[in-house]
Specification:
With about 325 residues, the protein is of the alpha/beta class. It is built from 9 helices and 13 strands. The protein has 2 domains: about 130 residues, ATPase, nucleotide binding domain (Nucleotidyltransferase, domain 5, 2-Layer Sandwich); about 170 residues, 2-Layer Sandwich (Nucleotidyltransferase, domain 5). The chain is about 40% helix and about 20% strand. Bound molecules: zinc ion (ZN).
Length: about 325
């Protein structure tokens, strides 16, 4: 039945992307609004509800709304616990939206990394996979896991905050979380820049300008065999390999999906070294069962729309 519809909404720091999507994953309609994160929460809720109501009037067959938010979510209560980039703390987003909607229907809210995995599970590389790990590598690093077709949930909604596991707590670079040597200080945009900055003086011939040490400049320089950039990328590859090994030894997945913008930027530069490092730290029965793939890069709003199908499926399983 091709006329079952959902709305997906991805709320980012700068923009909010809406999509009306059918069960096959076809986007029928989409809109982008500025987030205006300095605007009070109540006004943002009103703007979101107005757009949702437009779609609900236009598409009577919409049966649910899925929303991705950057930060931990109490999904049972539909409360955004702490979305730093939006300035939202303990916001009962689901109930606040339902109070404004012209129709009562299921509204599901998840953190954006879990949404990334759900997207892959319905429309991307993790389709038909029962055991899958997703690593979102962008400015920072987060993760999500599906085991036995179910999203893994932590006791306080902080599952897979793997970017802040400190692998070098004594000598590592200072992280914004207060620790030293977190995983994301090596493998994330923040990590690449901090590593290149810390070692810039050791490589006077580097192509990376001292006043413009960016992820882009590092990747470009690595493609020209720049020694500093290669050093930074190799460390990232090694730490990513260790991270993939932990995930494999703990969760025994069939697939690790690398998502996030940085994964797509550095995949070809790191994958060989990452796999070699991973193999060193895995038992063969675990290593042989798992593959690593780049994410399918699905439209984030379309991915959020799949939350409706996921939660319908999960309620049938339980
Ligand atoms: Zn940290």
């Amino acid at each position: 039945m091709a006329d079952r519809l959902t709305i997906g909404l991805d709320i980012g720091a700068t923009k909010m992307a809406f999509a009306v999507v059918d069960v096959a994953g076809t986007v029928l309609d989409e809109t982008v609004l500025p987030t205006l994160s300095t605007q009070p929460y109540a006004q943002t809720v009103e703007r979101i509800a107005a757009q949702l109501n437009t779609y609900l009037a236009e598409y009577p067959l919409i049966e649910g709304i899925g929303i991705g938010v950057p930060g931990p979510i109490n999904r049972e209560a539909g409360v955004v616990l702490n979305a730093v980039n939006l300035g939202w703390q303990n916001c009962p987003l689901r109930d606040d939206l339902l109070a404004h909607l012209t129709r009562t229907l299921p509204v599901y809210i998840e953190n954006d990394v879990n949404v990334g995995l759900i997207s892959e599970y319905f429309y991307g590389k993790a389709k038909d996979m029962t055991h899958c790990v997703y690593l979102a590598i962008g400015t920072g690093l987060g993760g999500a896991v599906i085991i036995n077709d179910q999203l893994m949930r932590g006791a306080t909604y902080m599952e897979m905050e793997i970017g802040h596991y400190a692998i070098d707590p004594v000598n590592g670079r200072q992280c914004t979380c207060g620790q030293r040597g977190c995983v994301e200080m090596s493998i994330s945009g923040k990590g690449l820049v901090s590593n290149a900055t810390a070692h810039h003086a050791d490589y006077p011939d580097t192509l990376i300008p001292v006043d413009d040490i960016t992820t882009y400049a590092i990747i470009e320089a690595a493609r020209h065999d720049d020694e500093l950039a290669t050093f930074v990328i190799d460390e990232a590859a090694e730490v990513l390999g260790q991270l993939c090994a932990w995930c494999t030894m703990i969760f025994n997945p069939n697939l690790i999906v690398l998502g996030g913008g940085l994964s797509h930027g550095i995949y070809d530069l790191v994958i060989e070294k990452t796999r070699a490092e991973m193999r060193k730290h895995c038992l063969p029965q675990s290593y042989d069962a798992v593959s690593i793939e780049l994410s399918h890069s699905i439209n984030a709003a379309m991915g959020a729309s799949a939350l409706v199908w996921y939660f319908q499926k999960e309620s049938q399983l339980s």
